[in-house]
Amino acid sequence: MEDQEIVELFLARSEQAITQLQGKYGSCLMQIARNILANRLDAEECVNDAYLAAWNTIPPQKPDPLLTYVCHIVRNLSIKRYHANNARKRNSHYDVALDEIAECIQSNATVEGEYAVNELSGEINRFLSTLSRENRIMFVRRYWFSDSIADIAAMFNTSSKNISLRLLRVRKSLKKYLEKEGIWV
After folding, report:
1. Of 57, 85, 113, which closes a domain?
2. Dist CA 148 CA 72 (whole Å)
3. Has residue 185 been placed in a domain?
4. What's 125's DSSP letter?
5. Short-list 69, 21, 74, CA closest to 44
6. Is 114 inside any structural domain?
7. What is the pLDDT of residues 13-51, one digit of tens each?
8. Are 64 and 3 in contact (CB under 8 A)?
9. Smallest Cα–Cα separation from 100: which of 183, 181, 33, 167?
10. H/E segment holding residue 78
């Protein structure tokens, strides 16, 4: 079933919408949640909460593309759960990924910060468009989907060391790009 048809089911308030969404994207959503949480039960709960959130927000939203919309929901729910689970400890692969990217991007929790985050998001998207397809996929898989270095290496049929080095170079390029654009980190 096409995404638009699934959205139409949501708009019609048909319970088949959840079933179709789960059938089409359930494994992808579980992978995102498991990559962040490293706990199957927590991941399942976040994915189920994402289905409920999609049900509650469609309508009025009419997401296009649907996959990006539900991935964003499950990622945010998983990160929230991750922080709740790990309030006092830092030891997972997700922390490592956050530490890697932290030198390029800083956190802003004010209204001005929200504006800056939107601006930063646009600059990062422009930067990503300058990368080769492989480097762009590696970056997104690592820092959006929270895939491990080993998983990305397997995806590209190369060594973990090669992926780590390429990601390091991309992060350095990102930092230079942001500084050139007047965004200091």
Report:
1. 85
2. 19
3. no
4. H
5. 74
6. yes
7. 999 999 999 999 999 999 999 988 888 999 999 999 999
8. yes
9. 167
10. helix 66-85
